[in-house]
């Protein structure tokens, strides 16, 4: 692997200089090992399908291409496809391979294993055959938690969010049952080939239905916390962070596709909740705006524990490695304490969410860098307690009770908070990047296309 190490060093010198000089015309052609191209494609496929950002996938694939001496390798990564092309030179035919991403399932434990594989290969500690064997082992591997626990994790998100919103045991239990039942109904629809948009709408509708039943039974104050917990379990924290990260790093096609995915997920939730609320109002159920509490700004120990519980439950649903559960709990508690402290200082909710996310982004990126692990498993669960479930529910109630303009503003406010969270954690990562040295993955300052000045042209 001596040649690979030398090529790796030359590659990063080229990246740092910002230029890629063409090789001389008389350079001899190099043979292209099809197994190396296959490995690059398969690793990129599994990374992207497991929830990694486009820039990190691109870096990993290029690192493998250099390590296994694929000549003049070009990598193209989009939201749904991968392409790798090698140009041996001296009249030899180029070799190109592509792969479509047809199924994306968040499996953050795979991200950690795949990043370890790429790091070992990049420094010459893993031969091509060994890399293929390790990749097959990762692909066949199972999540660190049993399937039933991952199903219950959605209910735990809703229950913890209900307590975070001021509810008690009855609220937590009702939100848990409604969310798990809605998730199982959505899974049944998936097995019958129903589109995911309608699966999410049905799952959100079950949470809203439970809230309407509670209102009809004479406990309107509990309804909002129930539906908030159910909505929070469905909100797209993972694709939101990845979409903003892709946009910041210049992968605009993938950023647009991911942001459109976020839009459709939120639209499905709004449609499911809105249909139930509209039906309740039409049937005479007294859903009043006065029953909607404002976001609680309390630093009570129970609320802090509930925020940690939301983060841990989100981590379980994303199948993070077991070692990430404790950092996720700490991150959820920290972001809630910072957010509430800022609200008590009269900071606007959107700005408070953004500042809290920046702190989590800095801490998460520093911790992930120290562990030499991907960052998403640390930061995505940590921001989950601040996802805007209450604002979405308020907007739906306002739209269906004659306050259309106010409802639209509430929905815009919910989207603004969500975007502030995504932008905040990515800004935290950029602050860390600004002061770190360049590593083997070309993730440091000056070593990425997005860092080159274009001034918008």
Short descriptors:
three-stranded antiparallel sheet; 457 residues; mainly alpha; 17 helices; 66% helix; 3 strands
Topology of helices and strands:
Elements: H1 2-17, H2 34-49, H3 54-67, E1 74-77, E2 81-86, E3 95-100, H4 108-122, H5 128-140, H6 147-164, H7 169-191, H8 196-216, H9 220-232, H10 237-248, H11 252-282, H12 301-317, H13 325-344, H14 349-371, H15 376-383, H16 389-399, H17 404-434
Antiparallel strand pairs: 1-2, 2-3
Helix pairs in contact: 2-3, 2-5, 3-4, 4-5, 6-7, 6-9, 6-12, 7-8, 7-9, 8-9, 8-11, 9-16, 10-11, 10-17, 11-16, 12-13, 12-15, 13-14, 13-15, 14-15, 14-17, 16-17
Classify the helix fraction into a percent range: 55-70%
Mean pLDDT: 81
Rg measurement, Å:
24 Å
Q: Structural class of the helices, strands and pairings?
A: mainly alpha
Number of domains as seen in the coordinates: 2
H/E element order: HHHEEEHHHHHHHHHHHHHH
Low-confidence stretches: 11-21, 438-446
Shape: elongated
Major sheet description: 3 strands, antiparallel
- Strand residue content: under 5%
- The total strand number stands at 3
- Count of alpha/pi helices: 17
Sequence of strands across the biggest β-sheet: 1-2-3
- Termini gap: 41 Å
Task: Describe the structure in brief.
With 457 residues, the chain is mainly alpha-helical.
Describe the protein in words.
This protein has helices spanning 2-17, 34-49, 54-67, 108-122, 128-140, 147-164, 169-191, 196-216, 220-232, 237-248, 252-282, 301-317, 325-344, 349-371, 376-383, 389-399, 404-434; strands at residues 74-77, 81-86, 95-100. The protein has 457 residues and is mainly alpha-helical. It folds into two domains: 2-19 and 30-142, no CATH class; 147-434, no CATH class. Strands 1-2-3 form a three-stranded antiparallel β-sheet, covered by helices on one side. α12 (301-317) packs across α15. It starts with a helix and ends in a 23-residue tail after the last helix. Residues 11-21 and 438-446 have low confidence and may be disordered.
């Amino acid at each position: 692997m001596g040649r690979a190490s030398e090529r790796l060093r030359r590659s990063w010198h080229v990246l740092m200089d910002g230029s890629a000089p063409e090789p001389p015309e008389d350079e001899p052609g190099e043979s292209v090992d099809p197994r190396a191209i296959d490995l690059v494609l398969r690793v990129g496929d599994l990374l992207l399908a497991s929830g990694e950002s486009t820039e990190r996938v691109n870096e990993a694939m290029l690192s493998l291409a250099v390590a296994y001496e694929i000549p003049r390798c070009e990598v193209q990564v989009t939201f749904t496809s991968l392409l790798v092309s090698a140009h041996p030179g001296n009249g030899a035919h180029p070799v190109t391979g592509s792969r479509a991403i047809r199924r994306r399932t968040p499996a953050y434990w795979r991200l950690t294993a795949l990043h370890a594989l790429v790091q070992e290969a990049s420094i010459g500690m893993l031969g091509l055959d060994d890399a293929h064997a390790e990749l097959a082992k990762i692909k066949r591997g199972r999540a660190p938690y049993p399937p039933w626990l991952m199903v219950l994790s959605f209910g735990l998100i809703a229950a913890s969010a209900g307590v975070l919103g001021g509810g008690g045991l009855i609220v937590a239990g009702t939100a848990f049952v409604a969310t798990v039942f809605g998730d199982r109904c959505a899974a049944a629809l998936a097995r019958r080939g129903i589109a995911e948009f309608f699966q999410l709408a049905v799952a959100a509708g079950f949470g809203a239905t439970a809230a309407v039943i509670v209102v009809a039974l004479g406990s309107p104050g509990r309804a909002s916390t129930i539906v908030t917990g159910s909505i929070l379990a469905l909100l797209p924290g993972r694709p939101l962070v990845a979409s903003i990260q892709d946009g910041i790093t210049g992968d605009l096609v993938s950023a647009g596709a991911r942001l459109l995915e976020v839009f459709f997920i939120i639209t499905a939730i709004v449609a499911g909740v809105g249909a139930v609320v509209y039906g309740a109002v039409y049937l005479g159920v007294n859903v009043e705006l006065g029953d909607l509490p404002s976001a609680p700004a309390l630093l009570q120990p129970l609320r802090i524990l509930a925020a940690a519980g939301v983060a841990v439950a989100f981590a379980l649903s994303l199948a993070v490695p077991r070692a990430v559960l404790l950092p996720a709990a700490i991150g959820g508690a920290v972001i809630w304490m910072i957010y509430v402290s800022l609200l008590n200082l009269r900071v606007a909710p959107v700005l408070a969410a953004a500042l809290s996310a920046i702190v989590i982004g800095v801490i998460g990126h520093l911790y992930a860098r120290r562990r030499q692990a991907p960052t998403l498993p640390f930061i995505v669960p940590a921001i989950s307690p601040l996802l805007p479930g209450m604002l979405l529910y308020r907007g739906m109630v306002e739209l269906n009770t004659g306050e259309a303009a106010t409802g639209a503003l509430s929905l815009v406010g919910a989207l603004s908070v969500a975007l502030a969270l995504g932008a905040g954690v990515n800004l935290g990562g950029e602050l860390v990047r600004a002061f770190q040295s360049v590593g083997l993955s070309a993730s440091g300052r000056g070593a990425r296309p997005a860092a080159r000045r274009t001034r918008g042209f």
